[in-house]
Amino acid sequence: MRSVTLSVVLFGVLVAGFVAGAWYSQRESVGAAGPRSTRILYYVDPMHPAYKSGKPGIAPDCGMPLRPVYEDAVHRDSEGSVSTRRAGTIGMDPEQQQLVGVRVMPVEKTADTAQLRLYGRVVPDETRLYRVDVGINGFIRDVSAVTTGTYVRKNQWLASLTAPEARSPIQGYLAAVDVLERTRKDTEGPVSVRAATSALQLMADRLQTIGVSSVQIDEINQTREAPPTIKVVAPADGFVVARTVSTGQKIDRGAELFRIADLSRVWIIADIFGPEAAYVEPGAIARVTVPGRTTAVGAMVGGSVLPPFDSSTQSATLRLEADNRGYVFRP
After folding, report:
1. Could you tell me the pTM of the whole model?
2. DSSP at 237
């Protein structure tokens, strides 16, 4: 009987202790959380928090209702100034920011650079490309040994052309030379000299039209004889990029004999696809390298014309302009 009574007493003590512990734990959690303060300190403009009002209303700038600021949303910084933030926002003074390495700065738009790798092909500068032809029908009597890729100098002989139709304008040029000399000797006056000089220049232009070079015109002027052939010469220093003539070939008026390119400055053409084209602007600087060479050459994006767009490949043609020292770039 005594043991039963002791067991009942112990059981009662355990139940009482459990109930007391649960009640105390609930009380502590409620006390720790505490009721949030609902007292409104003032109202602010949601778009411009610097605007404050002591009563609810409408923001004067945006027409939105003023937002209340509660007492538990007020934060005082290390200097004692008051700032507002939403409940649950973490505050950090300057010392804490420096300790954890937090940096705060205004958002701003800045420029950035990125690498865009493209494969290009070298083509002659169109302003430095020379087409060699003649303005008369004839036959090629002789051709120099120059071929595609050969470097030639200005006025270097390229071919000789036989054209019977050229004899008449050459004789007309010689007659104009004689008239000018007689006019100067007879001292017929400046008006007559100017007229004779103009007639001589007209005949020289006619010779150049049929393909007679200025060098050969000077030879005709000195020898006073009509040459048996027209000498086709290079119009400028450069590389032969095309040759379409051979000995004994019949030549029609306007037919291209040679094409010469001055490669001291070249164009580099590349295809650029999709939205990448928007990042390339005229005047941008590119770094151009050649396989097998360690040196790089600077080039500038040409901006005189708009880049042509190929609708079939959805790509734009990018043109770079580069100085070609040492003729590193070849078409």
Report:
1. 0.61
2. S
pLDDT tens across 262-308, in order?
Answer: 999 999 888 888 777 777 777 778 888 887 775 566 667 765 555 67
- Please tell us whether the domain made up of 122-261 is placed in CATH 3.30.465.10: no
- In a 3-state reduction of DSSP, which class is residue 225? coil
Q: Outline where 135-225 has alpha helix (H).
A: 167-185, 190-210, 214-223
Partner residues linked to 309 by β-bridges: 316
Per-domain residue ranges of the chain: 33-84, 122-261, 264-327
CA atoms within 13 A on the CB side of 319: 16
List the beta strands (DSSP E) in the chain. 40-44, 52-53, 67-70, 74-76, 82-84, 120-124, 129-133, 138-143, 151-152, 157-162, 230-233, 238-243, 250-251, 256-261, 265-273, 285-289, 296-301, 309-310, 315-323
C-alpha distances in Å from residue 214, one per residue of 42, 238, 309: 94, 19, 42
